[in-house]
Amino acid sequence: xxxxxxxxxxxxxxxxxxxxxxxxxxxxxxxxxxxxxxxxxxxxxxxxxxxxxxxxxxxxxxxxxxxxxxxxxxxxxxxxxxxxxxxxxxxxxxxxxxxxxxxxxxxxxxxxxxxxxxxxxxxxxxxxxxxxxxxxxxxxxxxxxxxxxxxxxxxxxxxxxxxxxxxxxxxxxxxxxxxxxxxxxxxxxxxxxxxxxxxxxxxxxxxxxxxxxxxxxxxxxxxxxxxxxxxxxxxxxxxxxxxxxxxxxxxxxxxxxxxxxxxxxxxxxx
Amino acid sequence: xxxxxxxxxxxxxxxxxxxxxxxxxxxxxxxxxxxxxxxxxxxxxxxxxxxxxxxxxxxxxxxxxxxxxxxxxxxxxxxxxxxxxxxxxxxxxxxxxxxxxxxxxxxxxxxxxxxxxxxxxxxxxxxxxxxxxxxxxxxxxxxxxxxxxxxxxxxxxxxxxxxxxxxxxxxxxxxxxxxxxxxxxxxxxxxxxxxxxxxxxxxxxxxxxxxxxxxxxxxxxxxxxxxxxxxxxxxxxxxxxxxxxxxxxxxxxxxxxxxxxxxxxxxxxxxxxxxxxxxxxxxxxxxxxxxxxxxxxxxxxxxxxx
Lengths: 270, 306
Ligand SMILES: Cc1cc2nc3c(=O)[nH]c(=O)nc-3n(C[C@H](O)[C@H](O)[C@H](O)COP(=O)(O)OP(=O)(O)OC[C@H]3O[C@@H](n4cnc5c(N)ncnc54)[C@H](O)[C@@H]3O)c2cc1C
Ligand SMILES: Cc1cc2nc3c(=O)[nH]c(=O)nc-3n(C[C@H](O)[C@H](O)[C@H](O)COP(=O)(O)O)c2cc1C
Ligand code: FES
What we know:
The complex is a heterodimer of chains A (270) and B (306). In chain A, 13% of the residues lie in helices and 32% in strands. Chain A has three domains: 93 residues, Beta Barrel (Elongation Factor Tu (Ef-tu), domain 3), CATH 2.40.30; 117 residues, Nucleotide-binding domain of ferredoxin-NADP reductase (FNR) module (Rossmann fold, 3-Layer(aba) Sandwich), CATH 3.40.50.80; 44 residues, Dihydroorotate dehydrogenase B (pyrk subunit), domain 3, CATH 2.10.240. Chain A contains four helices and 17 strands. Chain A has a seven-stranded antiparallel sheet. In chain A, strands 11-10-9-8-12-13-16 form a seven-stranded mixed sheet, sandwiched between helices. Chain A has a three-stranded antiparallel sheet with strand order 15-14-17, with no helix packed on it. Chain A is of the alpha/beta class and 270 residues long. The two termini of chain A are 24 Å apart. In chain A, helix 2 runs parallel beside helix 3. With 306 residues, chain B is of the alpha/beta class. Chain B has one domain: TIM Barrel, CATH 3.20.20. Chain B has an eight-stranded parallel β-barrel with strand order 3-4-7-8-9-10-15-16, surrounded by seven helices. In chain B, strands 5-6-14-11 form a four-stranded antiparallel sheet, with no helix packed on it. In chain B, helix 4 runs parallel beside helix 5 and helix 5 packs across helix 6. Chain B is globular and about 50 Å long. The model of chain B has no long low-confidence stretch (mean pLDDT 93). Classes of the chains: A alpha/beta (270), B alpha/beta (306). Flavin-adenine dinucleotide binds next to strand 4, strand 6 and helix 1 of chain A.
């Protein structure tokens, strides 16, 4: 919690392309700055309407991908409310203000020899950048993605580009295997050489709870969590998530600062 | 930034803009874009005798031009503040005001004593107005008798200037102000957040873990102005005004209502650069609107209480 650990700034990017991607949208944004250097799993606080007091707060969005050479930032946004709907209707050429990068990213050094990514719905957003980062380190990753139906799947092509293989699950069997994405872990205890060294997870709380109940005893899981945020930098203590304590006494961490990525066994999902 | 200095009772601030308690941590979370020494003073997060865990999530909810929070005064306790943060703030020459919270009167007194022994604290702000804790907090600040007794007891253990932070959630804010003035307060700061709540229609249940939360931001600005106005008419103590301040005209408006200095909190979340913009615009706006002077109390009719 001490000073000196933060490196963020305010930026303004120009929207190059706004493309539908499953049930979400992919926004490619040109960021002309050598200082912007996000890590996989970090997020940005994105301004919705710079000229209005309403909506007041920024919206936290993951860096879905960053092409450092081209200076192109990719966001993947699922329109769920006022702010996200506003963003996904922006036209190319419009300016998008944000500050970041914020939070602690995925621990790449813990990947081991055979990391897996598991993503539910828009949880695939930060995983593209993670898969890119692993690939750039020469680490081969298996990626499991799930959604309600094929048309809702997000970022599949991008994930394929950086993963060794991508396994798809849909609840209505319209693509890949039928079931929720965690079904892909059911046989994990019988796996020998193929067993994941670590799981990087992002998705709905239900998915994380299933991971908690099924694999937590055998495989380290690093999960990217969500919380409503005000400051995004650690100042307001609004984004609390419960953390486990020896005696069970209540204790909280800040999703924006200690997170958004946490070892799953250390947090109390609500 | 010269020429913006202002006197807040016994405190000489280099500019009238104060980072309020709870939205600026212990001063360093915004460091890359907002160093703590930018402000005339920094009021740190509410600090208690022992660490408080705070309320269960969710703790936040955005509302029209505002937000509800129910943090529950999570803080690492006075000893951690003194050990880990105060030296850094002192090093940077920040005017530090410590925000004091407690569950009982003796806890307020004990925290105040600990803080008074430390080197580098300019003043204490007694938070008797937090709506988000079950005991203490607002329970003191809504009773004339308790407010007076609490301030009187802290007055006995400290020679530091005492700011008393008032709640807008009372029927007669002037009466509370008079009571804390009589008990020896040096400055009145206001307003703390306005009690509110939000409901999730799908879940048919309150959204915040604590059910109620405190409303802050531009949405409460008119309430803040009204409370400052009433307190200015009721007592002769200087006022630190806050509640929804977002730009430099707001600063001047709060001064016209009676504030000697002005706090900024929630506006940081909407625009972390707001304090810089305010400090850049203030000299020009002050020249344009108030002949280059601080317009403290100017909106009051002549012959008002001061
Ligand atoms: C670290 C982090 C990274 C994220 N990355 C992405 C991403 O890459 N792509 C993406 O589409 N979304 C992402 N989200 C979620 C996104 O922030 C929310 O969907 C967004 O803030 C909702 O804003 P809104 O104005 O559209 O919705 P609102 O009108 O504010 O609310 C609509 C619904 O969304 C819920 N909601 C509001 N804010 C949040 C929030 N911060 N977290 C979770 N639920 C919320 C509300 O309770 C409500 O049910 C991320 C969240 C976090 C914390
Ligand atoms: C997230 C949050 C946390 C707060 N924590 C404290 C606190 O610890 N002590 C306190 O006296 N006031 C606290 N407040 C109240 C503010 O200091 C201020 O009085 C109020 O928010 C009105 O100002 P604003 O509209 O500029 O934010 C908090 C406010 C917010 C939004
Ligand atoms: S959002 Fe303010 S501390 Fe995390």
